[in-house]
Amino acid sequence: MSDNQKKKTNKTIGKNIRTFRHQQGWSQEEVANRLGISIPAFSKIETGVTDINLSRLEQIANIYEIDVVQLLALDMEEIDQTPSNLSIVQKKLLDREAEIVNLQRKVILLYEELRNTKVSAHM
Q1: Which terminus of the chain, N or C, has fewer Cβ atoms within 10 Å?
Q2: What residue spans define the domains of the chain?
Q3: How far apart are CA 113 and CA 123, in angstroms?
């Protein structure tokens, strides 16, 4: 493996590690403490500066409760960008709420129109 390929692989693995950390809602400090390393050392892993060995990968995978293979996946960014079922449902819910608000406005306008018509008819 050339130096260039090695750097690219380290960066990809680092991005995956960062992505999983964000999904957990953890800080670098929390993960570094669990690994028993300094925050700068963990930061170097995430940025791809440090060559990461298999035992460290296994340790990180165990902390995240995932397989090492998931940390090595080269298409994590693509996976991360596909909408989850939850985000699809959230979007549908927001669309329905907007529909309800529009219908409520129409009901209010019709009610006011009806009231104004009755008031005009009584005069």
Answers
A1: C
A2: 3-81, 83-123
A3: 16
